[in-house]
Design a protein that fits this description.
With about 140 residues, the chain is mostly beta strands. Helices cover about 15% and strands about 50% of the residues.
């Protein structure tokens, strides 16, 4: 009885281990690099890798945080549309409507670099490191 319980426990453990090691989604690879806007690192934001379905490139989109101009994450290989979102303080000061003070003005990345982006990159089925995304 003890031996049969031990064998059952072993088989269940092995099946669970095999099930956990299987990848249920598409194969992803590391992506990392830098994002600059007008020659300066983007302080914070998001970069998205959107599959170009017109080029028979299917799969989910992936995104990474941008911190101090750098990003790191994962994506599937293929032709990707790049969308960058972010904002920054311009250093310009602005008078509040109630006259109570001034706050730095924040500006956003123009839509030609996100929703209307035409930036494309081909990610290889391997590590894609040191990508340089320059927004001008």
């Amino acid at each position: 009885m003890f031996f049969r319980s031990l064998c059952t426990l072993f088989v269940v453990t092995m099946l669970a281990a095999v099930g956990c090691s299987q990848n249920d989604g598409p194969q992803t690879y590391p992506v990392s690099g830098t994002v600059t806007y007008e020659g300066k690192p983007l302080k914070e934001g998001q970069i998205a890798f959107i599959p170009d379905t017109t080029k028979v490139n299917v799969g989910p989109p992936y995104s990474c945080k941008i911190v101090d101009g750098k990003f790191s994450g994962k994506s599937t290989p293929g032709i990707k549309k790049i969308e960058v979102y972010g904002s920054w303080e311009t250093g310009e000061m602005m008078q509040m409507d109630d006259g109570s003070g001034q706050t730095p003005v924040r500006k956003a990345i123009p839509s030609k670099f996100n929703e209307l982006s035409e930036i494309e990159i081909e990610l290889k089925p391997e590590a894609n490191e040191d990508l340089a995304i320059e927004l001008k």
